[in-house]
Amino acid sequence: MFEHFTKPAREVVVQAQVEARLLRHGYIGTEHLLMGILREGSSVGSRVLDRLGIGLDAARSDVTRLIGLGPSERDERDAEALQAIGIDLGEVRRRIEEAFGPGALDRRVRRRRRMRWRTDPCAPIGHIPFTPKAKKVLELSLREAIRLGHKYIGTEHILLGLVREQEGAAFRLLRDRGVAAGDVRRLVGEEVARGEDPPGRTG
Predict the structure, then answer these.
(1) Would the pTM of this model clear 0.85, i.e. be above it?
(2) What is the Cα–Cα distance from 88 to 92, expressed in whole angstroms?
(3) d(CA 171, CA 35)
(4) Residue 145: which CATH number?
């Protein structure tokens, strides 16, 4: 299927992986595909999202609020060490949230420290798998391309797949921001009719 993707659509998948790494998520979900479209920034899909008032920073903030950040390597090592001496972090979290409210440990504490990365956090280290819902979105993008009579899969088809899927985090984020599937379809039609993106270019 990826051989039918345009260059911008391929870039969406690359940028989705970058977003997953930045958020320390060990998977590529529908939310990362949405942010990938926004990061790509110049194609039909990103222009439609721009017209709908959806920006990358807002989407990333929504994803962080809805899903949170994944654990760092150090967090995992610390949890294993504490588990070895009989401290259950899940129980500690439960008690803290019972006392201070849900998400108390997720609130960011501002402190001055230098972040050091041994390597580029976005470097392609290992494979990040797609979730079943993200795979379904990519399959639906192919169906959307066929439905529109296109012989390529562009960012607009990925976006249409996101709103057609209706169960993933991306759909919920768009819905919560007042975006309706009908609006996405209408704007995609308008943007495609302008013909600014060369269709079928897989370069």
Answers:
(1) no
(2) 6
(3) 12
(4) 1.10.1780.10
